[in-house]
Amino acid sequence: MISYPEDVLFRDYQLKSVAAFVHGDPTIACPNLIIQGNSSSGKTYVLQKFFEANPSLINAWLEPIELVSWKPLLQAVVRSVQNKLKILFCDLAHKECDPLEVEEPFLLVKALWNIFSQYDSLPTDINFFLVLDGFDRLQDLDAALFNKFIKFHELINTKSKIHLKLIYMIQDIAFVERYSSHCLPMIVFPSYSIEQIIEILIFTRVEQLVMSNTLRERIIKQGVEECTDEQFVSVAANYIKLIVQAFHSYTGNNINALNDFIDFKWHSYVQKITKENIFDPLALYRSSINLFLTTDDSFVEDEDNRDNYNEPSQTYELSAISKYLLIAAYICSYLGPRYDSNVFSRRSYLKSGRSSYGRRKKMETNPRYLQPSLFHLERLFAIFQAIFPVERTTESGSLASLREEALIRANVEVFQNLAELHVLKMVSTTVTKNIDFLSHKTKWKVNVPWEIVLEVAKSVNFDISQYFSGL
Amino acid sequence: NIVRPLDTDFRRFKHHLLRQLYHNLPPEQTKVFTYLQGVQQEIERILKQAITQKESHSSMLVGPRGSYKTFLLNHELDLLSARYHRQYITIRLNGFIHSEQTAINGIATQLEEQLKILSKDFKDSSKKTDISSGSLTEVFEKILRLLDSTFMGNNKLNDEKKNVKNKITVIFIFDEIDQFAGPVRQTLLYNLFDMVEHARVPVCIFGCTTKLNILEYLEKRVKSRFSQRIIYMPQIENLKQFRDTILELLTVPNKHEYRCSESWNSFIERELSNEKTELYKLVKTNYDTFRSIAQFKNAIIPLIFSSQSIESLRGSFESCERVKAHNRNQLQTSWTAKVESLSDLELAILICAARTALKTKDETLNFNLVYAEYEEMIKGLNSKIPTIAQTMKANENVPIVFDNAIKLWKKKDVKNIWENLQNLNFLTERGAVGLRESAQAVFYASNYQFLGTTIPFDLRVYQTQIDLKELRRVVPRSSMYYSWTQL
């Protein structure tokens, strides 16, 4: 008789379907079962609860994401099946099979055949459920592997007492659809709706939040005395509702992400509880409004907060030359070479000739949104020279000023800094393998987004945005 | 819910019905669908010729997945094993699981295993069975020698007739034989088909494949050795046949074994002959779409399994609620359902992505462009919303602003949404290959650093899986983003 777990919400249909395929009778069981659903739709939880409620069903679990490649997966299948059987029927197993010898799909068949043949003296036939939790999360997954798994049962001795039944949990529907012509039974776990998420979170988290130390301490500190357990529960439940309503658009239907928010903001929320507002949810919400406005989902401090400290923000600790090289590389990548002379030329002309007119029409899309274009190294150095500030140390008009360079040259340091930027992956080249830096064919591009270049430029007081304002 | 003890007669009946659905009854009770019986007889003839007459044959079963190729072969072999179980051994290979190399080991171990069982019967332990040991070439040589010559006993000098009697037929069953018929060499098939022609051991080869042009896969010399017998699995041709097959699937043959079987059979027949019933409608829908018995079985197995009595079983067949729920459930992660389950911000970003894709020439987009589109959309929406003037309350310091505007999420917050949409497969990287076909291709790909992974997050180029026109049909008219589902 199959019993259903009690503490599973909104999964009645799924549980009933699982029960129809996962039971103790090998004569009416399907060798393969697919459980499909997007992440955080309760696949693992429901199945674990199901097996907990039915301890007579033999099951073993594998997580292919930890096994990376197909060979460890095959070996893990043998290992887990063998270990589980050894624990269950310790008096029957005679010789052990080395799981590491399984190096081919065919050897898995052979090993399972050998293992199962040791249990031929069992009184009844039994089902052995092997759950492959997250089959499509295997890193080296290929299309042929699943075919192998769904056909194993045809090659293993049908007369043995132990029947291996495989349950696959798969997130990606596109993966399942590749094998739809096999007509394997599939149970779909749809995403929860927002109402269901609230109910699930209240069901799972309230107790934990009410029992948390932060709440206890705060209550004692504030001297709130007449407060029943129900009121505590309602405070916590209300908090969960607020969190879901505030951040559901941000997290989508991901329960794990919402759980993170609940943990992350609970402490600050509790700090806002006072004697007055604990019974007044609206007042409590108003006093803690800041928590629900921003996600704070970052390890870097927010830009808005940083202004308060008045700290000069420096994203990267680069040298001045590197910073200007990076800025120059950004300009090279995003401004058309046709208009360079109009933008950067400052010298008065000794010979006759007209200067460039520059861009006539505005561009349709902002080039900063698009991928960087390639440039030659000479152009980078030219623009670098144009934008790099050189301070005059000598008095103007003196003889020494004749010897002084008005502009920076591409000296050793410049090349060194450029090479370093390349190693740091802030500038990159066309090909990634065996780059010949000295070849004239090698072209370069910048590899940082606008936000970072803007910050770098700000740190050297270079107004890069003016170069991009007129586009 | 009170758990009542099941009526034992009904329980046995249900069990029988389910076993029938799983084709798991003992071989003599298993029914073969009428439309398959022609092929069944042909397979039976070939097998009998091979086992009793000791003739060598090779043949191919060609049919789509789930067309009962393996089932028929297994069924026939089970039937024959009752009468002739000492006269043949079966070797099964699967093109998915065995490669050209491992198939040799597979044949050797199965030969060894089967001969051990046989020699136990014959009480002839003098035969040494160590076929599967040694290097690959040794093993292959041993198999060939074994099969190429008579192998039961070394009594070659004995009477020729007696020898024939002692010969054991080797039946090879290849699933996915097209995997062995690769573009290079086909050594295994060559040797096996060669045995059919030349060996003194009767060898019978069945290849199952889904490829209609299987002969084009075979090399010239392999094809010439193959006996050119191709059996195409019959398909269900019309609705009546499909209905009759379902009827065969659901009726219980042994009328006196269970009390309820007779009334059940007439009930099912009644349901299936009336075009108004839910069951008939489902059968018709299945015929029009999948035309697949397996598909139908998956839907009704939970139905039968969960019923507690013959009345409830009949009731659930009359309403077919469970089957409809199954069909609904199968589509709950379809594109439509996925779009419906998105949060408002995810939907907004998806619409913006589809808009951006429509605007660009090659239908590509990146995060920057989509965010720019999103900003524009939210500003457009907010500009249309009437804002209520700022009112001052009695408390001077706290002005209350009725903020009806839609929140414009920050760029760094939207990045999470962007990744969610990627995980839900709404966005795929441009030129992505996705799942590789073979393990080797995966290995090559894992050693290659893709350009998309080295460039910054905002600039990676994506394509949408669902375009704006499709979104317009899925997004409800009541949604505030509905007006943005067209340019």
UniProtKB/TrEMBL annotation, chain A:
UniProt entry keywords in alphabetical sequence: ATP-binding, DNA replication, Nucleotide-binding, Nucleus
Superkingdom of origin: Eukaryota
Signal sequence coordinates: none
BP-aspect Gene Ontology terms: DNA replication initiation
Major site of localization recorded for this protein: nucleus
SUPFAM superfamilies found in the cross-reference section: P-loop containing nucleoside triphosphate hydrolases (SSF52540)
The Origin recognition complex subunit 5 C-terminal domain, residue ranges: 318-468
Family matches, as InterPro entries: AAA_16, ORC5, ORC5_C, ORC5_lid, P-loop_NTPase
Gene Ontology MF: a single term: DNA replication origin binding
Native organism taxonomy: Eukaryota, Fungi, Dikarya, Ascomycota, Saccharomycotina
Protein name: Orc1-like AAA ATPase domain-containing protein
